[in-house]
Amino acid sequence: MNRLNHFRSAIPFCTNYHSKGSWISSLNYFISYDETEKNIPATNFPYPSDKEFNVIWTQIVEGEFYPDTYFEYIKSWSTLRRTIIQFNNEISNILIRKFQFNQDLVPDSIKELLENLLTQLKNTPLIDIDRWERIGINFSDRIKEKLQNNEKMNSYISSYRNFLFQYYGINSKQNIRLGFHNFQDAEANLFQMHNFFELVYSEKPDYFNDYLIVQDEIQSFHNFRLLLGYQINNHGQKKSVLKYLEQKEKAERKEIIQEIKGLLKSVNESGIQVFYPKDLIIEFPFKSIIIAYSVNDPCHTELELLEIFKKMSDYSKIQYVYLIPLYHKGIFTEFGFKVYIANVPKILPLLIENNREFWKYMLSFKITNYYKKFVTINNEYTIPEYEIYSQLFQFCNEFQIFSEINKIILLKPDETDENLVKLENRFNIMKIKAREKIIQLIQKNIDLLKEYQLKYPNNGYSNELITFYQLNLEKIKSNQMIDDFENIDYIRLFSYVDSMPINIE
Prior knowledge:
59% of the residues lie in helices and 9% in strands. The protein is of the alpha+beta class.
C-alpha cells in the first residue's frame, strides 16, 4: 500500500492504481495468494486522518468493553474455538455431500452459525499480556516471557476472519485463493495457540476443559483444508472424497521421504547412519524434513553434513531440512541445524574447503519434544566438551541476528512516516530481546569454559575464548557499541575450540 500511496502522490490523476511484485526466489513452492497484486480505484484510497481517529476510537471502545477478569477472557476464547470447530465440521459435511452425491443443499442453520461466528471473531479480545497484568492477571517469571510472544494467537483470529470474508464474500478467483491462503495461515498458528493455552493453564484454571478439544480442533482444520483445496481446483464428484484426499496427502509426503531416502542411500552405505522421519514438517507455506545422522566426532559434525548435502543440493520438493547429529545413536546436544535447501550450493564449497564460515548459511534450532516426535531416538545424554562448540555456533547465530537488527535501526527512518516509525519501534523491541538472549548465552558459554578448565587446567585456548566472551559481555551490558558482526574473527574462535584437548568417552 505504501508504494501505491507514493505512486498516487506522484501521479494523482489516474482513476485506478495497479501493482504486482516480481518474485525472485530459488525456493520452489506455490504461492497461493500474491499479496503484491493490487488494483485499487483512486476513490477507494483511505484518508490518512481516518487512521488516527480509528486508533483513538478503538482505545475508547476497548477501555469500555474489554473483559476485566481472567474468566471472561478464557470464556470468550473457549467459546470461539468451539464455534470454529463446529463451523469447520458443518461446512466440511456440506462439501462432502456435494462431492460424493452432487448435493448443493445448504441448511438455513449455516447462515445463522456464520453470523454468530463473525460476531464472536469481532468480539473476542486479542491476547495482550500487559493488559492482563493491568487487571491483575499475573504469571510467574518462568512462563511470562514465553507468553509475551503471542503474535500467533492474534493472527489466528485475524487470519480466520479474513478467510471468511474473502472466501464467502465477492466470488472471484483471487478472493477465493486469498481466503484459502488465510485459512492455511490460521491452521499453521494452531500449534502456537495450543502451546500458549497449555502454558496459561499450567498456572491458571482451565474452567472450560479446553484440553479436551485440541485434537478435534486439529482434525476439523485438517479435513476442511483438504476439502477446500479440492473445491478450489475444480475437481468433480468423488466417492469417499475425504478418505481419498487423506490418502493422497499421505502418499505425496511418503513419496518425498522415499525420494530423500533414495538420494541418501549411498551415504548410509558409506557408514553414516541416517534416521528418517515418520512424516514431513508442514510450516505453511513450506514443507520441511527432519533427519538425524550419526557422527564420528561430536565436535566436527560438519564432516558428515558434507556427504548429506552433496546428495541433496538439487532437491526442490522441500524448502528446509532440519538436522540432528547423533553420537552412539543418541542426542548429545540441545541444538540442531536448520538449513534452507536453496543455501546448500553456497554451503557445499565452504564445507569442502573446511571453511568454518559455512555456519553463516545455517540456523540453529532447539531440539524440543515437538521435533523429537518425528524421528525415533531412544538415547539422550550430554557431552560437555561438545557444548562449547555447540554454544559458540549458537552465539554466532544470535549475534548475526542482533547485528542485522542493529543495522536496520541505525538507518533512522523518516519520522513523518508513521509506518516506518512503528517498524523502528518493533525492531528496537527485537533488539532488546536479542540483547538479553546474547547476555544469557555468553554467560552460559563462560560457565561451560570454566567447567572445562577444571578438567583441563592452564589451557590457553579456553582462556582466549573466555576473554573474548567477557569483553563482549561487558560491552553489551553497558550498552556500548559491540564489535560489528563482520569484524569478529569467527574462524579464529572456532580454531580455538578445534585446538582445545577433548576427551570423549
